[in-house]
Amino acid sequence: MLKKHWLKTALIAVALMAPMSAMAEYPDRDIRVVNPWGAGGGTDGIIRKISSIAEKQLDGVSLYVENIEGGISATGVAQIMKAKPDGYTIGVLTYDSVITVPWQNMLPSYDLKKLKFIARLTSEADAIIVDATSKYKTIDDLLADAKANPGKVRVGIQNLGGRIHLTLLQLQELTGVQFKTVAYLGTAASQKEAILNDEVDVVITSLGDFASLLEDGTVRGILEFSNAKNPTYDVPTSKEAGINLQNGSFIILTAPAGVSDEVVAKIESAYKAAYDSEEFQSWIAKIGVTPNWLGSDKVTEWSEENSKALFSKLDELTKSGVLSK
Description:
Layout: H1 2-25, E1 31-35, H2 42-54, E2 63-67, H3 74-82, E3 89-93, H4 95-104, E4 115-131, H5 139-148, E5 154-158, H6 163-175, E6 180-184, H7 188-196, E7 202-206, H8 211-215, E8 219-224, E9 248-256, H9 261-276, H10 278-284, E10 290-294, H11 299-319
Parallel strand pairs: 1-2, 1-3, 5-6, 5-7
Antiparallel strand pairs: 3-9, 4-7, 4-8, 4-9, 4-10
């Protein structure tokens, strides 16, 4: 009887210790990083770069990026939400994932409470970009032509109803001009083709999305919707131009809700080390994106406050008839 009691006690002890043992081994296999945007865009480049550095902290485990695009990022984000909360599927959120999709209620099952935010990696202001040979040298040139030719100046954006569309609508509202909106699905890759093929006169996206074309002089930035100068490119800010409009995207690292705090701490630590590395900081300084870390202790609160303010602006534009939901 005593022997049976001892055996039962031993089995219970082993069962209780099993989760701790499994936790000590995390990660023991490769980690999938879902990017809900296509290959070739700014988000893709950044998450691939920082993940390749972060995996050096994980004892031979790879952080492999998988592009799952569609639904203005909703398709890929939904996969993160549905994944097992064991730390082996994490992913990326951008402005549209946090603002556009929830505000438009695109998917009834889409709920950010199904995610646990790990960290914000970057902030990235929207900008107006033109071909290097464009007649528009300044924002004043562009606005003057748009006023003289209402609805004629073609502006390439990403995704109707998305962040960049909101920036364009607010610019029109503030300046009293009317552009011809040309929308492309997905990432900045389509915008690059459009401006190179003269399908549009200007595009609105981040300077980072057009880094390679800015570097080789194929395109120029004429305005960035920010109140602070870009550390990489000498582009006038909206504040300098007297336009009271700041808007842009960000990259947030996330995991399925229910993932343990220990796993979050391990992932956050690996990415923070990568973020702080000379390799990443030197690289990102060349692409026109602002590194802007916010850890797991603050990123959720920041996101909720930012969302509340932007939802209010979107609702206001909808009520005034400028935007339709």
